[in-house]
Each structure stands twice: as structure tokens, then as C-alpha cells.
Amino acid sequence: MKKILLAAVILSALCIRLDGIKWGLPSKTLTLATYHPDEAFLFQSLENMYKTRSLNPKKIALHYGTFHFYVAGAFLGAAKVLGIIHLGSRESLLSNFENVDRMYLTARLLSVFCALLSVWGIFMLTRRIYDENKALWAAFFMAFSPMSIDISHVGKLDSFLPPLVILLSWFTLNLLDNPSKKNAWLCGIASGLIASTRYNCGIFILVPLGIIYFNRYKIAFLRIFPVLFGAFLAFIATTPYALLDYKTFLAGLHHMESFVTTPTLPTFRDSRPYNLIYIFETMMPFSMSWPATVFFVLGGIFCVKKGIIPQEKTLLLGFAAFVFVFCLSSARYTHYIAPLLPVICVFAAYGLVRSLERVPKSLGVSAAIIVALFQISYAWAFNGLYSRPNTRELAGEYIMQNAGPKDSVGMVRSYFWTPGIFRQANPPIAVVKAGDDLSEYIDDVERLPTLSPAPSYFLLSENEMRSVRLYTAQNGKDYAGILESFLSQYDSPKSFELEPEIFGIRFWRRDAPWDLRLIAPRIDVYKI
């Protein structure tokens, strides 16, 4: 019976992730990009490798780590051999958008596969630590985690992190049971692969190192050296240009350091200690759900009360280490929680089952049904941000239905928030921009008053409004006032907004983190 339930959970995970997998497609723009600003990095890196006839992905991939790019490249290469896609130059792709769509879908299917692997892997890991009941709940939370759904819809490195963290946890448990050199090397290799996927996740090497230290009466302390050497060799093997092109690698590290020290909102600059609260008060409720967050906390409390066993310590070490790294950052991006999904699912399952065991059976069954229905409903509602008509598409359709032959549509600049119909080589309506793709956004805002005559329609997204407020606070220049003055010549906007909801019931009762809003940002259309 439990095998049937696990199969149902995995099948449900597949269905929910395939629904909406065409988000941002079909392609129609000169940028060859989707609605996610980073998704095209994979193809830009592969293009660099093709041009140089090497494995050097150049600047973009070396900002993160190249393991994902190499694996995804091999996956796309296999699809090419099978005739599913045709890799080519940018110029050839611009003349064949259908092939571009197939390339994106192929990369996203790899993310979906990683998600399914995470569901199965967390079941196996939880069953090893606890039992099958808790393992099924852990798999359920992973399958219907909005964050897991989120990273499954784009061809990005984040989808690799949950299964790799599960793999490292599994190898660490092996080391705990059998402290051999082989298991120490495997822990190191898994740690190196995680670091090669995203540099800051290299902190997870503290999991096997911590287990060795806390169990030094059982595990020879010298086992730290196979872990360290294994991590180094795996990292260099999968990010070779960290050595071969070390200047670009170091520049990438500097870029990422400056990136995480730049706050995503002005108020985040001096609030690093608040990050710990932000994880539990905002990131986990939005990324997982309130029930999963509450039961995760309860699971931790139950573990402390009964006494933390070494297997639980393995997971908690990883959680604590990465939370520490996150607390050093001024930037708050919800997808940062991706590597924490495994431990959250395990302890949420443990907390839920232990809570149900403490109440009468009838009440426990009712509570379990309510939790399951809420989690499934939130997951499907969140997935609707990908599967329902997007705000960008709705805004573009509205302008096309109402604009006359002599009308024009204006914008600060064209970017991932712009309706694709206005990013074509020959848009159906004249497009007026204050800047281009290479100009600085704040300079573009300053140029708005020079748009004369003013365009008939003007597009503005909530992402742009957020940026204006951020730069106004940082630079002390009234960019917000410039924008407000420019918009004063227009009527009140027609707004297009999309939030997770089912039967008119919205799940977001407060402002969602801005990077979750990126999926379907509010678009305001002004008419003069």
C-alpha cells in the first residue's frame, strides 16, 4: 500500500510540474529569453563553449559554478543526437523560435526530473532515519512544495540542489554507520558537486566534517582529509576553469559577494540579524506553506525534547550552516531556500506525525486531511502563476485591443517584465523606450521627460517601481519623483495582477517576497 501511495505522490509531483512548463513560451523576442531573467544563462554559456571549442563557459557560469551547466549541456546534447532539438548560433535561433521553445522545454524537463528525484530521495532518506509513515509525509511535502514547483519550471541550477543535498546526507549517514575511507571520499565528492553547483552551498561540507567531529570516538578524525580532498577534486573536475581561468573565477566571486551585499529592498541593508526571523516568518511560509513551517518547528522541538540522535544532527548541521551563510547576506531571495528543502520536509513530516500521535485518532485523521488538502491547494494555486495567462500577456493583449494605428506604447526599458509582443523585431505597434538593453536603468528613468511626444500608452511593472524606490534610497536622487511626474500626464492605470488562488480564495494575505512576484508581476498600463 505504501508503495502505491509513494507512486501516487511521485505521479502527482510530475503532473503539477508539467502543467505550466511552457511558461513564457512560445518565444517571440529578439532576446531569446523567457520571463525569467536568468534562464537564458544556460544557453549563453553553452554558446560560449561552442565558440571557443572548449568547456570554458566564460563569465556567466563562473559566477555560480559549472556543474549544472555541464550536466544540462550533456542533456541537451543527447536531445540533439535524438533529433529533439537543433543547437545553433544565435542568428539561426532567431529564425526558428520553435526550436528555441524545444530547447527551453528540454532544459526544464531536466529540472522536473531533479524534482522527482528529490521526492523519491527524501522518501528514502526519511525512511532510513525514521519510518515509512514519516517518509511518505516528507515525500508529500516535497512534491507539493511551492518552492520545489518554482525551481522545476525553469532551466536553472537551483533544481540540482535538493537532490545533491539529499545525496550528501545519505553518504554522511553511510559514514556514520561505516566510517571507511570510501564513505569519507563519497561525502567529499558530494560536497564538491554542491559547491560546484552554487558556491555558497559549499558550506554543506560542514555536515560530514561536523559528524566526524561530534562522533570522533567512533570515526577516526583523520577521515576529514578524504572529505576535504574529495570535495576539492570534485569541485575542480566540475568547475575546471576556476583554475584555468582563475581571474574570471575570482571576478565572479567578487560579483556574487557584491550581489548578496546589495539589499533587495532599502530596509534590508542593515537588518542581517533579522534574516533568521525572515526565514521562518516569510521565506518558509511562502515557499513551503504555514502548516509545513509550523510542523518543521514542532519537529525540531520534539527532537530536542527526546534527545537529538546523530542522524538528525546530520540534517540539522546542514540547515544551521546554510542559515548562517544566509544571515550574512543583505539580499533576500526566496529561491535561496532551495537547498534547505530536504531538511524542512523531513522535520515537517516528523513534527506532523508526532503531533498526530498525541491526539485522538479521529481528530488526527481529520487534521491530516486538512493539512494535506491545504498543502495540495496551495501548491496547485501557486502553480497557476505558471499555467494561467500571464500578466505580461494580458497587458499586451489589452493594448493591442485598444490601440489605434497611430498609437505608440512606451516603457522605461525592455526587460523580462515586458510583454513579449513588444520585444519583437517588428512589433505590431510603435515602441518608444527611454533606454536600451545595455543602458543603466536609473539613467533611463532620468530620460523619461525627454520622450516627446509622450507615447499613447505606457507600461510599468511592479519590479520597475521597486527598483526606482531602491535606487532613490541608495543614491539620494529623486528618481521616484521623476517617474511620478512623468506619469502625471496619464490617466489612472489599468492593472493586471495574478496571485495564487482557488475558487476566489487567495493564499497570499500579505505582500509576497518580490522574487515570487516575478513569476507574474503586476503590470500597470497607463493611457494618455
Provide mean pLDDT, rounded. Answer: 90
Spatial ordering of strands, largest sheet: 2-1-3-7-4
How much helix, percentage-wise, in residues? 55-70%
Beta-strand residue fraction? under 5%
Note the overall shape. Answer: globular
The profile of the biggest β sheet is: 5 strands, mixed
Quaternary organisation of the protein chains: single chain
Cα distance spanning the termini: 63 Å
Calculate Rg over CA atoms: 24 Å
Beta strands, count: 7
Spans of at least 5 consecutive residues whose pLDDT stays below 50 are none
* Class by SSE composition: mainly alpha
Number of contiguous helices: 24
Question: How would you describe the overall organization of this protein?
Answer:
- The structure is a single chain.
- 60% of the residues lie in helices and 5% in strands.
- It contains 24 helices and 7 strands.
- The protein has a 5-stranded mixed beta sheet.
- Strand 5 and strand 6 form a beta hairpin.
- Helix 6 packs parallel to helix 9 and helix 10 (181-197) runs parallel beside helix 12 (224-238).
